[in-house]
Amino acid sequence: MTLRLGVNVDHVATIRNARGGPHPDPVRAALIALEAGADGITAHLREDRRHIRDADMRRLKAEVPLPLNFEMAVTDEMLAMALEIAPHACCLVPENRAEVTTEGGLDVVAAAGRLPDFVARLKDNGTRVSLFIDPDVRQVEMASRVGAPVIELHTGRYCEVEGDDRAAELERLVAAAAAAAELEIECHAGHGLTFDTVAPVAAIPNIAELNIGHFLVGEGVVIGFGPAVAQMKRLILAARAEADAARR
Ligand code: PXP
């Protein structure tokens, strides 16, 4: 299975919004990411519009010739936007106004009543639906039951902890990705990944896509956004090729 790199441009908009003008433009960053080897563009339209705005989503869909992954909360407002924009994919995430970033995965077990209809409406509109969940086999099983064809595993905790704790988190990611493969659900992963943490996750054979944003935008300031995306792509493909060769 090849591994795709989805580049999240939210924090290009964070920097733009700090001054209120049009620069830097997340659409321009997405086009640079495309040139550098990105396989898709991800953006999260938050309820408070703190970074990406409605007009950005519309422009990303219209102006960037890459699959668009629209991250969104499970709300009627976001459902209406996603039905209008008709992105390639939607990733459903939990959202809490006070958080700095998406802190945990969606609790599919708790949200199971609402999700089947929500997922079905997006699927009927031609969008692939993914659920952003913690690496927990029970959540993967529920994602399958509510009809999601894709899950995205939250790698935030794996990135935050170190040593044995990180090894244990990696095992949880491996087990959740294996459960997804068993249930024929496509598996993605992301959150907090950097050049230093990405390789073991990229080596997990059942993962088809990694979504990475904050680190790439930060490296963009230091080494340039295109070079940062290109380096991330090289690292993930090398880690996957090495893991595939070791299994043969
Ligand atoms: N995947 C999901 C579902 C996210 O919410 C985020 C953060 O917006 C990411 C991936 C990317 O995380 P980061 O910006 O830390 O790379």
| Heteromolecules bound | pyridoxine-5'-phosphate
* Cα end-to-end separation: 14 Å
Which bin fits the share of residues in helices?
40-55%
Oligomer: single chain
Total beta-strand segments: 8
Main beta sheet, described? Answer: 8 strands, parallel, barrel
Q: Strand share of the residues?
A: 15-25%
Mean pLDDT: 96
Helix/strand class: alpha/beta
Number of helices: 11
Q: How would you describe the overall organization of this protein?
A:
- The two termini are 14 Å apart.
- This protein is an alpha/beta fold.
- An eight-stranded parallel β-barrel has the order 1-2-3-4-5-6-7-8, surrounded by eight helices.
- The protein has helices spanning 10-19, 26-35, 54-63, 76-85, 115-124, 137-145, 156-160, 163-182, 198-202, 214-223, 225-247; strands at 4-8, 40-44, 68-72, 89-92, 128-133, 150-154, 186-190, 207-212.
- It has eleven helices and eight strands.
- Residues 8, 10, 44, 71, 91, 93, 101-102, 132, 152, 190-193, 211-215 line the site of pyridoxine-5'-phosphate (PXP).
